[in-house]
Amino acid sequence: MAAKLGGGTKKAMVDINITPFVDIVLVVLIIFMVTSSVVSQERIRVDLPDAASGDSETPPTSLALVVKADGTLYLDGAEISSDDIRRRLRQARQSSEDIVCLIGADASARHEQVVGLIDLVRQEGVARFALEVDPIPLPQAARQGLP
After folding, report:
1. Which DSSP symbol is given to 144?
2. Strand partners of residue 51
3. Which residues pair with 67 in a beta bridge?
4. Do the Cβ atoms of 116 and 78 come closer than 8 Å?
5. CB 59 within 8 A of CB 140
6. How far is 118 from 40, CA to CA, in rounded Å?
7. What residues pair up with 65 in beta bridges, in sequence order?
8. Residue 109, burial from CB neighbour count under 10 angstroms (0-12, 13-18, 19+)
């Protein structure tokens, strides 16, 4: 084997090395994947009840209300009192007549609290609301003894 050291013809290196580019793209992809999972998890954790007739699509909501198991109320992710909910519903009704409330409740929340929240929403003139559930497939619902 013979090797040539130095000298010889001096050709310009015209090959493009894409390895550093691929490394940078992969690092950016990993950063994007990590941050997107963190952003999607910034919400109030509640154990929603299961329902076979649950729809996976949620209506375009104006306000999202949540009742936790301990009775704490949340409006659009911020803890709030029932009086403040009334005030916010009135403000929303002044700006728009077509308001939809998405009401979510922890599975272990008291029925009385959920009914009270629905009643509060209806007293403020909001006729359109939806109850948030985790949809389950119909065969699984039959196994759980649901109609």
Report:
1. T
2. 135
3. 73, 105
4. no
5. no
6. 27
7. 75, 103
8. buried
CA distance 99 to 88: 12
**Can you tell me the distance from the alpha carbon of 138 to that of 144, in angstroms, rounded to the nearest whole number?**
10
The CB-based long-range contact list for 73-81 (8 Å cut-off, 24+ gap) reads: 73/117, 74/44, 77/42, 77/43, 77/44
Q: Are 69 and 109 in contact (CB under 8 A)?
A: yes
What angle do the packed helices 82-95 and 111-123 form, to 10 degrees?
40
The 10s digit of each residue's pLDDT in 9-62 is 677 767 778 888 899 999 999 888 887 766 554 455 555 556 555 555 544 447
**HEC sequence for 86-124:** HHHHHHHHHHCCCCEEEEEECCCCCHHHHHHHHHHHHHC
User: Per-residue pLDDT tens for 85-111?
Assistant: 899 888 888 877 678 888 888 888 888
Query: How far apart, in whole angstroms, are the C-alpha atoms of residue 37 and residue 45?
Result: 15
In DSSP terms, 135 is beta-bridged to: 51
Which of 129, 126, 131, 67 lies closest to 92 in space, CA to CA? 126
CA-to-CA distance for 29 and 36, rounded, in angstroms?
11
Give the β-pairing of 78-80 and 134-135.
unpaired
Average pLDDT over residues 64-91: 88
